[in-house]
Design a protein that fits this description.
By secondary structure, this protein is of the alpha+beta class. The protein has 24 helices and 13 strands. Helix 6 packs antiparallel against helix 8. The radius of gyration is 27 Å and the shape is globular. It binds ligand LY3KDABY and flavin-adenine dinucleotide (FAD). Ligand LY3KDABY binds next to helix 4, helix 5, helix 6, helix 8 and helix 10.
Length: 664
């Protein structure tokens, strides 16, 4: 028993009430027994290495934090080489080091851009250097004046046939590259997106490999202006990353540094487009978006793990006669706010695993020159990225509130997690692309074309446009088919409504613009349907371990029904359900929360996070929260002296003056 009311064995008690096999759930979460083992090994490797300590990170200055990131990255790389880690292991090591840095852009965007847009020859030249970290690369697309609108970028790459070179130039202030991670201080190279101009004609945006810094002393090359764009939201947090600014003053690069898989410029300056779709230019973004979806479940599960464990420890009110107080986790309000987030963490995990499969499948098809599934992959990654990141950012903040005052302390880990996470909502785009894809699909369905993949349900238009849910009791909502039907009907009816209203506008573009808020809601409905469907499909797999599938079935129902409750207006206004059926869904939710309650701590244990990775005194595995909180406070630099710096100059004179006044 901890001193002063903290009750570490409280969590042992919670674990004893679990009605399922936690090891089995770890396998379901990780994807396989092998994945559990590798993740566990990498998490422990990081947690036991003093170089990877992060408990003082929020107290470091920007310069100290950046240097610490360089040190961690170099040390991580050394360990990866020494231990001959596989790609899977290295990725996990990066995850558990838990500090954004230039390596993310090097591996996450620079390398994939060359792989996706470079010719075989270019890949042979650049990738071996990148794989050995002989060069460090970033992804320089966004400019001061344009981010979302990629076609509006201003940087130019003008071909000079006399020298067989491109001239990279930043013609205006707004054309300065602005935001690329790793650009500010670390990168030696970048894939730069610029307008290709040859024979006096502007051929639009293309990618170019450009060296930025000397490989001898890291100084910027002639004509290249480089720097960091300045401090960002939150202490510690994303400030470990050197998001940068870059300007070119007529910098020359050889012609063969244009990424030439999609299109080429010949020695004479002729522009040639190959048979590859031009949208492959955006392929790196598709890749990164699927990793961002996978990351959403990691960030969300961390926040939920902290909030669930702490809610099981924290007690408030309850007994009027001096008996024990109530664990806040027992309050129905706490459960109704927290358990949907727990369910969402599992839902995002499974949809992330599916999206990874989809991406791999599309990539294989692209290699065989089959481009048919690209639009769907683009819409799914863009849509899921947008929905899961927004919901995760909101959820982390909700978990902070659920932890009361202590959640606001840096030592809870939640403020930093939130600050690191929120930019994921901004970078890599929004749902507009999904809405366009949906409108196209509705138009195709009207011509009799049968949609496939995640939009296959739209082919069932006759039924879905007029069906009425048959749910008659609360328990009827446990039937996955009942849930799927109403989510499909809602998504389709919202999309069809939009399409009909657009068709009444003077032009399609005007209609699209006028209806964009509705289109966004239709896109969200479609994406939520995908997440619900993938959760239901996961439950059709063989899931070993006593009680594991039963718990996941409850979480799946909670995930879907809390969305139904939250978006009740959509379901009612499209006539998919009645008000009574909505009330029945809510009734079932209450029952499901009560069933999840004894399993809650074990369900977050199944994430298998070390205390190092969680980085939270509130989320400690042993539940020994209060001594840890108390101890943590004394580590603050403000407590290095008993009497604060500034006392002599600012406090003492004030106090003395008040003394004189009180004597008057
Ligand atoms: C300290 C650490 C120590 C550890 C050390 C360990 C060592 C190493 C170990 C290994 C580590 C590994 C780590 C890996 C980690 C990876 C993680 C990555 C981290 C991620 C960080 C991200 C940072 C952020 C980056 C960025 O933000 S990059 C910039 C992103 N920009 C955008 O997102 C712009 C958004 N804008 C758009 O998306 C636009 O909408 C658009 C450009 C796509 C479209 O605009 P527009 O309509 O004008 O376009 P077009 O007219 O050209 O085309 C429209 C048609 O094209 C289709 N379309 C559009 N996009 C695509 C697409 N992507 N694919 C297919 N098709 C597409 C549209 O649908 C239109 O089609 P239609 O004509 O048929 O309608
Ligand atoms: C932490 C971080 C890291 C980043 N890393 C990189 C990187 O490595 N490389 C890189 O190239 N870039 C990077 N970026 C840039 C990022 O990709 C852009 O910030 C993002 O694409 C959004 O563009 P923007 O900032 O120009 O916003 P804007 O496009 O100016 O958006 C402002 C507002 O307008 C809305 N809006 C814009 N267009 C439309 C539209 N057509 N319809 C309706 N609403 C619209 C947006 O939704 C938003 O609400 C990073 C950004 C951040 C925050």
């Amino acid at each position: 028993m901890a001193d002063g009311g903290g009750e570490p064995d409280q969590l042992a008690g919670e674990r004893a009430t679990a009605q399922f096999d936690v090891d089995g759930m770890k396998v379901a979460w990780a994807g396989s027994r092998h994945a559990v083992e590798v993740a566990d090994r990498m998490a422990r490797l990081v947690a036991s290495d003093p170089v990877f300590r992060k408990d003082t990170r929020t107290m470091l200055s920007r310069k100290e934090l950046f240097k610490d990131t360089l040190k961690k990255a170099a040390h991580a790389w050394k360990r990866i080489v020494e231990l001959r880690l596989t790609e899977e292991e290295a990725n996990l090591l990066r995850l558990y080091v838990d500090q954004p840095g230039y390596v993310d852009l090097h591996w996450g965007m620079f390398v994939p851009a060359i792989k996706g847009q470079g010719t075989e020859e270019q890949q042979k030249k650049w990738l071996p250097m990148a794989y050995k970290f002989q060069i460090i690369g970033c992804y320089a697309q966004t400019e001061l004046g344009h981010g979302s609108n990629v076609q509006g970028l201003e940087t130019t790459a003008t071909f000079d046939p006399s020298a067989d070179e491109f001239v990279m130039h930043s013609p205006t202030l707004t054309s300065s590259k602005w935001w690329p991670g790793g650009l500010g201080k670390a990168s030696t190279h970048a894939v730069v997106y610029a307008r290709l101009i040859t024979e006096g004609k502007d051929y639009g945006i293309h990618g170019f490999i450009v060296q930025l810094r000397s490989l001898d002393d890291h100084s910027p090359l002639p004509g290249v202006t480089l720097g960091d764009i300045g401090g960002k939201f939150g202490s510690g947090a994303y400030n470990s990353m050197d998001n940068g600014v870059l300007r070119f003053d007529h910098v020359r690069i050889p012609r063969d540094q244009m990424l030439m898989r999609l299109s080429q410029v010949t020695r004479e300056g002729k522009y040639v487009h190959s048979d590859v779709p031009k949208q492959l230019l955006y392929g790196t973004m598709v890749y990164v978006r699927q990793t961002i979806v996978a990351d959403a479940s990691k960030a969300l599960s961390r926040a939920v793990c902290i909030a669930v464990r702490y809610s099981a420890i924290r007690k408030q009110f309850g007994s009027q006669d001096g008996g024990p107080e109530t664990q806040v986790l027992n309050y129905k309000t706490q459960q109704s706010r927290l358990f949907p987030l727990l369910a969402s963490a599992y839902a995002y995990r499974f949809v992330g695993q599916w999206l990874k499969w989809l991406y791999t499948d599309v990539t294989q098809k692209l290699e065989a020159k089959d481009y048919s599934t690209l639009p769907e992959a683009h819409a799914c990654t863009a849509g899921l990225k947008s929905v899961t990141t927004s919901a995760t950012a909101d959820a982390i903040e909700e978990c902070r509130k659920l932890c009361g005052g202590h959640g606001y302390l840096n030592s809870s880990g939640l403020p930093e997690l939130f600050a690191v996470y929120v930019p994921a909502c901004t970078y890599e785009g929004d749902n507009v692309q999904v809405a366009r894809f949906l409108m196209k699909t509705v138009a195709q369905v009207a011509t009799g074309k049968q949609p496939v993949g995640t939009i296959a349900y739209m082919g069932n238009i006759q039924h879905l446009m007029q069906c009425k849910s048959a749910v008659n009791t609360a328990e009827d909502w446990l039937n996955p088919a009942a849930i799927k039907e109403v989510f499909e009907a809602r998504a389709l009816r919202m999309a069809v409504n939009c399409a009909q209203n657009i068709s009444k506008a003077p032009s399609q573009e005007e209609g699209f613009s006028e209806l964009s808020p509705d289109l966004l809601e239709a896109a969200v409905a479609h994406v939520q349907l995908i997440i619900v469907t993938k959760f239901i499909e996961k439950l059709q797999e063989d899931i070993p371990g006593p009680g594991v599938k039963e718990q996941l079935q409850k979480l799946c129902s909670i995930y879907a029904l809390h969305l139904l409750h939250k978006h009740l207006g959509d379901f009612l206004s499209t006539g998919c359900i009645t008000a009574r059926q909505g009330a029945l869904a809510n009734e079932l939710l209450g029952k499901l929360y009560a069933q999840v309650r004894p399993n809650a701590v074990a369900l977050v244990d199944a994430f298998d996070y070390t205390d190092h990775y969680l980085g939270s005194v509130l989320g400690r595995y042993d539940g020994d929260v209060y001594p840890a909180l108390y101890e943590e406070a004394w580590k603050d630099p403000l407590n290095e002296t008993v009497v604060p710096d500034g006392y002599q100059e600012h406090l003492r004179p004030l106090l003395k003056q008040q003394l004189k006044l009180s004597r008057l």
